[in-house]
Amino acid sequence: MDRNQQLFERARALIPGGVNSPVRAFRAVGGTPRFVQRAEGAYFWDANGARHIDYIGSWGPMILGHGHPAVVEAVQKAVRDGFSFGAPTEREVELAEEIVKHLPAVEMVRLVSSGTEAAMSAIRLARGATGRSRLIKFEGCYHGHADALLVKAGSGLATFGHPTSAGVPPEVVQHTLVLEYNNVAQLEEAFTRYGNELACVIIEPIAGNMNFVRASVPFMKKLRELCTNHGALLVFDEVMTGFRVALGSAQALYARNIPGFRPDLTVLGKVIGGGMPLAAFGGPRALMEHLAPLGPVYQAGTLSGNPVATACGLATLQQISDPRFFPMLEARTRTLVEGLRGAAEAEGVPFAADHQGGMFGFFLLPQLPANYGEVMKSDAAKFGRLFHGLLDRGIYIAPALYEAGFVSSAHSEDDIAQTVAAAREVFRTLA
Ligand SMILES: *Cc1c(COP(=O)(O)O)cnc(C)c1O
Fold first, then answer.
1. Cα 280 to averaged position of ligand 1 atoms, centre (Å)
2. Which of 12, 58, 226, 232 is a plausible cystine mate for 198, CB 3.0–4.6 Å?
3. For the CA of 207, the nearest atom of ligand 1
């Protein structure tokens, strides 16, 4: 009796596709999604009681692994004090202080409940503050499912985007220009044409929604210069990379290579909630003061800054602020990625990988891709076989080749060694 299969059938009768977020349905790889019964540390157990080493970690938030004792305690205490008040609490201030402490670009922050909401609100703020409508996003970057962002490139720079979802009227995306990631020439051309009409450019600095693709330093430097010169705001969507690739997030990595580098607005989520629904956006005081109730840009939320979610996020950030944390996490992630690389090489499978902090990506390609078009040259059938081979061996990676992977501080050397050994067995069948 397969309990995962039974639950999936029950779910499909009631919930579209049986899931509450599409990627969970395993459509890209086929097969039955694993229904999680419980999780602890680096593992979860599915409805059949099978243990999996979890490299998704709720798509990033579980940087301490599941059920870290300090986080569980903070959440339990918060629950006893009340679930939600619709009135301010001290922990919202503490969480804001903790975020601002690590991100020099963020002087003020507004807490919301999801990354989608944070990115959507940051764009509204950018438009409100600049008085402009147009924006640039990059192909392969995901910023949540707000209407204006569900868009693919038109034909050439002269045309703005087309909706990628039914239900999004073309008028709603008419101000969104979609460009190729890491393409400096195209970026320059777009700014020459539209620079003075742009409210903002939104980017995932390390794109985790096309597996793992870094914006190159020259590309980022040019983007920053063009935004500054044309009065457009640079919005860093760090929902995935924030407090995940480094304590100072991806922006700190670019600041190491580009003197004085800062984004104008930063969008956060995932890790800052530690697994609870919590996200944020922030930036300089002068910009953030355009928000209601101080300014004319409206934004609100019944559950924003929820007391249980802020307790969870705060406890998580406190743990990862230990100066030993990121070097340790980075070393674990490197061991995994180097191990996978060695296993692929030994079995003659083309393989390219990259990683930063507790985030990694690998491709069954001879070289790292620089943009979405190159990512999509990956062999999806081969990836599907790798995915299922690993799943059968109790290793749970993202069920789609355009998703990143995540290592937590709960992943032991032994977990990683088991993962590499399993991968080598599967690579052997792929070569
Ligand atoms: C996950 C993600 C979002 C959306 O966050 P949700 O909480 O799922 O709405 C936005 N941007 C990036 C970069 C993300 O990875």
1. 11
2. 232
3. 13
- Please report which residue ranges of 51-174 form alpha helices under DSSP H: 69-80, 90-102, 115-130
Q: How many residues does the chain have?
A: 431
Q: Which CATH architecture has domain 69-320?
A: 3-Layer(aba) Sandwich (3.40)
For the chain, domain boundaries: 3-67+323-430, 69-320
236-to-19, 96, 328 alpha-carbon distances in Å: 29, 18, 26
3-state SS, one letter per residue, for 289-328: CCECCCCCECCCCCCCCCHHHHHHHHHHHHHHCCCCHHHH
Question: Is the pLDDT confidence value at 158 over 80?
Answer: no
* Nearest atom of ligand 1 to the alpha carbon of 116: 9
- Report yes or no: 153 and 163 within 8 Å, Cβ to Cβ: no
How would you classify the pairing of strands 108-112 and 134-138? unpaired
Amino acid at 199: A
Burial 191-222 (b: 16+ CB within 10 A, else e): beebbebbbbbbbbbbbbbbbbbbbeeebbbb
Residue 215: helix, strand or coil by DSSP? coil
Rounded to a whole number, what is the distance in angstroms from the first to the last CA of the chain? 34
Per annotation, catalytic residue among 142, 194, 396, 402: 142
CATH 3.90.1150.10 corresponds to the domain 3-67+323-430: yes
Longest pairwise C-alpha distance within the chain:
63
- Judge contact between 27 and 401, C-beta under 8 A: no
Q: Which residues contact 77 (CB under 8 A, 6 or more apart)?
A: 311
Question: Of 46, 54, 270, 402, which residue is the catalytic one?
Answer: 270
- pLDDT per position as a tens digit, 192-218: 999 999 999 999 999 999 999 999 999
